[in-house]
Structures are given as C-alpha cells and as structure tokens.
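---------- Forwarded message ----------

FYI, see the Acetate kinase record below. Original note from H. follows.
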Amino acid sequence: MNILVLNCGSSSIKYQLLNLENGNDGEIMAKGLVERIGLENGIINHNAEEKIKKTMPIPDHAKGINAIFELLVDSENGAISSLDEIDGVGHRVAHGGSFFNDSTLLDDEAIEKIAQCAELAPLHNPANLKGILTVKEKMPAVPQVAVFDTAFHQTLPSKAFMYALPYEMYTDLKIRKYGFHGTSHKFVAEKACDILGWNIKDKKIVTCHLGNGASVCAINKGQSVETSMGFTPNEGLIMGTRTGNLDLGALLYIAEKKHLNIGQANTLINKESGMQGISGISSDMRDLEDAAAEGNERAQLALDMFSHRVQKFVGSYIAILNGVDLIVFTGGIGENDANTRKKILENFEYIGLYVDVEKNNIRGKDAIISTDDSKVLAMTITTNEELVIAKDTKRLIKQS
C-alpha cells in the first residue's frame, strides 16, 4: 500500500511517499519540502532516485501540491508512474479541538469540524485544510485521513486541561488545554516500550519532545494525563522563539508600556522570545552552545534556562504519575544534544536515575542512556511522525 503523507504548514509543505507492505515499517519512495509558498520564488527540494531542487512561483498550497504530484510521476526521477498508484493520503492536522480523540477518515463532516477548529490554530489548520481540499479535487476517489497533534491528549482529565478562568470561557469559547506533539509523544513511548519488551499499559513514562518547538508529556498506562503545551503551543517550555510559561501580568505590563496591540504582543511571545530573545544570537541550540563555549553569558543563560524549565516539568510530572519508570528524549534537541540531556537528568539521582556519560554520547539513535544500575531508565528515541501518519492512514483505510 502506497501512502502519501502531507504536512502543510503556513508557508511550506513537507511530504513523504511511503510503501507500507504487511508487517514492515515502511519504505520511503520519495520525500521533499516545498518552501516559501506565497512569496515571489518558491523552492522545492525533492528526493527520490536523485535529489532535485526547483525554484518556481508557488502562490498557494494547491500549486505546491500539484508540483509535488508532478515530481512523483516524473518520467526520469519519479517514484511512481501514475497517481493511481497512491492508495491513500494522510495529513498532519494541528488542531482537532474536542472533536477528535483519534485519527479519522475524512468525509465532509470531518472536514467541516477541522474548519471549525481553524480559529484555534489560525496558522496551521487553514493550511491543513488547503492540502485536504486540493487532494480531494485532484484525486476524489482516494481516501484521506487526518492525524491530529491534539488527539493523544484528549485523555487528559478535566483537572489537567481546565484553566482557572470563568467557566463560561470553557463552555462558550472552548478555552482549555489541548496539548500538541501528541503524535510524537505517543510514537516514542510505544517504540521505547517495544525496544525494552515492556507492556506500556503497566508503565509510567515522561516523554520530552525537545526541538525548536518543545513539550513534555506524562503518560500513564499508555494514556496522556498531562502535557506542557496548552490552548496554544506557546505554553510550557522555553522554545526557539516562544516564551513558554509567562506571567500574564507581565505581558499586559509590557503591552501597556510598549504600546503593543494584540498582534504585536502575539509576535513578541511567539516569534521574538525564547532562546532567540534571551541570547540575542540564535534560536538554534548548536549556535548557542558554540557561543557559550566562547564565553557568551547570555547564550549560557539561555541554555541554563532551557534545561531548568525541562527539569521542572519532568519533576512535576513524576509527582503527578506517583513515580516513573522511563524518561524519553526525542526531537532535534532531545535526540542529538547530549549536553542538554545530561543537564536535565543530573538532578534525578534521588529517584535512582544516573546518566551514563559514554552511553549518552550519541546522536540520532534509539538507546538507553542511564547506567545499568539505575532504578529508572532514560532513553533517546528517534521520532518518525510521517510513519505514524502513514500507519494510521493504512489502518483506517483497511477498517473502512
């Protein structure tokens, strides 16, 4: 079964075409990235038999997806001879609101519900919808599936997802914690348990998805019971350009003193803050570690703040779980940054978790990084959200 996975962002489209035969984890037939949608010159990086880079006008997502289709069936560097060889299309959708607690086959009703969630994720859901509708127009007979970033967190209890606002803010405006990165948190927890030969239903796990966007999740018996991102992805950890948790009174004070409107305040907390704002250098951990090594104090401060915030969430989630069996690191930072992992874990010796410096000195591998005598395990697990989307698409198509 050939599954096309589309991840439509506000100005980009990531894609993979995977072949899922019975029992395997998928063969990537082609993959690529469409960038600068809506700007004068769009860019497509496509990788199948060979790597191709094209610069062309890509005014909208429909043009971008049609360009992807053309590359997939290209006579010289295509992965398939005809679009008829695509058996299903899976879409990453940012926000499913309270409508979806699992991935879903897309019909008119599901598409309408995704549209209703657009105001909860104005940068992402409209782009996701454009991808869905373009495929529906181009290949109306091909089944489509939506896989939601928020779905895994629909098991949060009300004491975890509610905010201390007047209750009608929840009933009227649906203001609550939704959480994100759910696909990744679920995937790495299950993958880690498979590697260890554990039954996830018996385990307490804290997963740390650390990248330019970052979140922590407490997983009890395979279900999300708490997570750091909230109504929007800005809540929780310090991120590349996002503040994470912030005293709302401070934001109001800044807005008043700096004469910021709502749009400018939103830009401040989402695009100008975080590691970039603290350091004044970069949102990239690699740049900050290089600068800190050369004595830049603000870069070091940003690194220290990041690790401290992750430590704080992990510690609180251990309390919520009443103990922990496993702490997992994933994402660009979590999988590749040994120094950050060590700094986060160094205060958890009280629960019997000790970092093995040699084991921890790895990048992009599935591995145990705690010592052999640790009572609590720590692991790095590589995430693969495209594979999750493809597998869910295959599962739902077979069930239909």
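H. also flagged this: The two ends are 15 Å apart (CA to CA).
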